[in-house]
Amino acid sequence: MFDFLKKLKWYFGEHKWKYTTIVIVLLVANILEIIPPQLIGWTIDFIAGGEMTERLMWQLIGVFIVVTILTYTATYLWSYLLFDGAVKIESIIRMKLMRKFLLMSPSFYERNRTGDLMAKATNDLKSVNQAAGMGLLTLVDATTFMLTIILVMGFTISWQLTLFALLPLPILAIVEQRLGKRINAAHTESQEAFGSMNDSVLEIVEGVKLTRSYVQEAAENRRFRGMTDDYLEKFMKVERLDALFQPLTIIVTTFSFMVAFGYGAVLANRGLISVGDIVAFNVYLNMLIWPMFAVGMLFNVMQRGNASLTRINSILDTEDDVDDEGMDGVQESDMDFDHVSFQYPLSARTNLDDVSLTLRSGQTLGIVGKTGSGKSTLIKQLLKFYPEGQGRLVIDGRPISELDRGTLREKVGYVSQENILFSRTVRENILFGNPGATEAQLEDAIHLSALDQDLKRMPEGLETMVGEKGIALSGGQKQRISIARSLIRNPDILILDDALSAVDAKTEKRIIDGIRTNRTGKTTIIVTHRLSAIQHADLIVVLDDGRIIEMGTHDELSASDGWYSRQNDYYLKGGAST
Question: What compartments host this protein (predicted)?
Fold first, then answer.
């Protein structure tokens, strides 16, 4: 419980006056709430003693009404402030999580499943909200309210009766503390199972076409049912433990009522307390049911919140693998790979092996090779997606480690193999690359990417919704929208990572010719399986198993007896390069 509060001290420290006000108003509300039972006891004694008059009755009713209104006002005020704080805590943590998700390198997502990250951003945050709201409510209200009632019972009625009636309470506290620890462990397990189930849902939805094409619906359904049953069992384990709190509270309060009535009658017969005192005492005892039940709920809610906050903090405390403390300001686009070797964090082999090449600003580099030869890996080194390997990668005369990755990427227009589109219009997807672009710049990007003819066939042109991940578009249309999104930035370095694979040869030629004409003096890097896309390049490298096996111009490589020459001959004979 206190561990949870300690983890959120950064927020409580910033809003200490707000929470001080909450505590003060809550204490006032507690004091106001103990007045009505006293009024009831006095009324019974006035009636029993024959002292009740009409004026006294109206005075008691007036005080009762005023106290009720003040109690309502105070309770509303502190409840609003408390739950407002809980929502703000959740909002702040959610924004921190989103910022973390946006800034982390790809290796972070290789180690963390998407479904589990979603669970942390939804279910775990909900548990933190409940702990920061309902948890603090029960912590402050239950403890102060219980203490206030006990003091009033002891000092205004009978300390002996109060002592005997509350003897079962320590047993309740001990049992609930132990249950809370078990709930903490069980809740962590259930949230991890929920994350796995979330991840499975994502895979099933994204791969539904493949599942249907292989007629694996029944198998996938059985697999998912197993994961659902596993989550259900772990969730029900938490609920079974949680369900023990309320019966335990009822048993304890029942014993307290038995003591109160029995021993209260003895004290009344001895003349130590009045009948009105017994009635007031039992009203107070009845009011203690909420605090005692709340104490049980407190352990439960706080343990869940603490377990969830621990899971969230494990993400927030994760340091990025890629150092981002570099200097701003990249003026030129000269690049030098000096014996660069690299291995992905989860890879069992070297993905780039002793790569050396030089590309001057304004030149075009073509990268070809078999599938899995390291073409995309070479590109990712330029974008600082992963930690540096061995050797030196120098851009604009400085090692890439000394460059700020944000500034570096602002100079780059990158079209990846995935062609990721958002569930927005065609216009919004293109303008994502440069939100401040003019209509003229937009038209130029559309023309250069050869998207203009397709737009005429779309029902609403630029305002056509592309659907989730561009599902309403063909592969070639998605690629050209991605290219337009990069071209509208007019970047100093344009990288096309197999970005022309889904377009026909005529469209490819138009795009390449447009890039050559309009990007004079700017650097272009083209990763491709089609040799026709890079024949004009100033430098072509052929990769195989992470190593450069050939390097030169199209004419130089075609004249050699290597992989490039064989692929070019095959292409000229009407085949397709691989």
Answer: Cell membrane
CB 249 within 8 A of CB 224: no
* CA-based nearest residue to 478, from 467, 489, 463, 492: 467
Q: In the sheet that 539-544 helps form, which strands lie side by side, from edge to edge?
A: 412-415, 493-497, 523-527, 364-369, 539-544, 547-552
Domains of the chain: 2-316 (1.20.1560.10), 335-572 (3.40.50.300)
Cβ atoms of residues 379 and 525 within 8 Å: yes
Residue-wise over 50-78: b if at least 16 C-beta within 10 A, else e?
Answer: eebeeeeeeebeeeeeebeeebeebbebb
How many residues are listed for the chain in this entry? 578
Which residues is 172 bridged to in the sheet? none
Mean pLDDT in consecutive groups of 10 residues from the start of the chain, 578 residues: 77 83 84 78 77 82 88 86 86 88 80 79 85 79 78 80 78 71 77 78 73 78 85 84 74 77 80 77 75 69 83 85 60 81 83 90 90 88 83 84 79 83 87 89 90 84 79 82 90 87 85 87 89 90 91 90 86 57
Instruction: Specify the DSSP class assigned to residue 424.
Output: S
Q: What is the pairing mode between strands 390-395 and 335-342?
A: antiparallel
Kind plus residue range of the DSSP H or E element containing 463 = none
Identify the bridge partners of residue 60 per DSSP, sorted by sequence position: none
The Cα–Cα gap between 223 and 441 comes to 50
